[in-house]
Amino acid sequence: MNITNSLKAEGIKLDSKLISKLDTFAALLHEWNKIHNLTGAKNIKAIHDNIIDALYPIDFISFPKNILDVGTGAGFPGLVLAIALPNSTFVLSEPLKKRASFLRFAIMELGLENVKVEAVRVEELNAKSFDMITSRAVTNTNFLLKLTDKVRDSHTQYLLYKGSKVFDEINEASTYQLCYDILQKSRRNYLYIKSINVA
């Protein structure tokens, strides 16, 4: 079972080499997950669903050059985006050692040259500001904005993969002036913050 039909059903267009890499990633994760319990996605279909979830915004958002993914876990969304967007560079911040080890192995197996793993918490990351910060299921929006204060500047955008509480989280982040859009698909809300200022 490959991911081609799922991508077509969602209208996500990628070339065959990138699709092949996504299939390889899915197979690697499926095998590692049997032993290391990296993700709740226990079968190939569930892994494919997570890949589609990660990729859905690429047709609606222009991704910049330099991207940080906070709490990448088993690769969602950061590693999947790095596969699909070879012209952007990615840093994956993942403090859990077994997940960071998997990410490094997958990067090596896939021959990806646009992504590296930092096995630290984002607040411990020694880096300059990023053009975009992505994250899925790490923490609430307000706290994430605080955690990433040192790695953003006035031009940094955010793409946050959220559930039904996204509107409550925006209200709670009242110390910031946010210019944002929300893309909705099923139960997923993609919070795209175009600019952020301290109120």
Account of the protein in words:
It is a single chain. The protein has one domain: Vaccinia Virus protein VP39 (Rossmann fold), CATH 3.40.50. α2 packs across α3 and α2 packs antiparallel against α5. With about 200 residues, it is α/β, with parallel strands linked by helices. Helix content is about 40%, strand content about 25%.
What is shown here, in short?
The chain is α/β, with parallel strands linked by helices. The protein has seven helices and seven strands; from the N terminus they run αααβαβαββαβαββ.
Order of helices and strands: HHHEHEHEEHEHEE
Mean pLDDT, all residues: 95
- Note the quaternary state here: single chain
CATH homologous superfamily classification: Vaccinia Virus protein VP39
Strand order in space, largest sheet: 3-2-1-4-5-7-6
Strand proportion, as a percent range, falls in 15-25%
Helical fraction: 25-40%
- Based on secondary structure, the structural category is alpha/beta
How far apart, in Å, are the first and last alpha carbons? 49 Å
CATH class: Alpha Beta
CATH domain topology: Rossmann fold
Please report the total strand number as a whole number. Answer: 7
CATH architecture: 3-Layer(aba) Sandwich
Which term fits the overall shape?
Answer: globular
Q: Which ranges are low-confidence, i.e. pLDDT below 50, for 5 or more consecutive residues? A: none
Number of domains: 1
Using only CA atoms, what is the Rg?
Answer: 16 Å
